[in-house]
Specification:
92 residues; mainly alpha; 3 helices; 4% strand; elongated
């Protein structure tokens, strides 16, 4: 049985990471005059996603709930994603 609060925090974390990813992607196309602003947006998004990740881990520790991790599979970049994450990433 999953914890509703854990699921809610996970959803916020996933959205924050998606926003961070989009902001980081924008760094590659930012012109020199706009690069600093794009960098600041990316850094703020990174910090927000880190706060949600911390909240997720804190909740797991405090509440004792955690969803069992799914098996992971290597992707081209060398990073690892669970099957559920791959489905979400490919749906974007």
């Amino acid at each position: 049985m999953s914890c509703e609060e854990w699921s809610r925090i996970l959803s916020w974390y996933r959205n924050a990471v998606r926003i961070y990813s989009d902001a980081a992607d924008a760094l590659g196309v930012a012109e020199k005059p706009g690069f600093n602003a794009a960098w600041e947006v990316s850094e703020e998004a990174r910090k927000v996603s880190a706060r949600f990740r911390s909240a997720l881990l804190e909740h797991e520790h405090r509440h004792g709930c955690q969803v069992a991790p799914e098996p992971v599979q290597e992707i081209r970049s060398g990073a690892f994603l669970s099957p559920a994450t791959r489905r979400t990433a490919t749906a974007r």
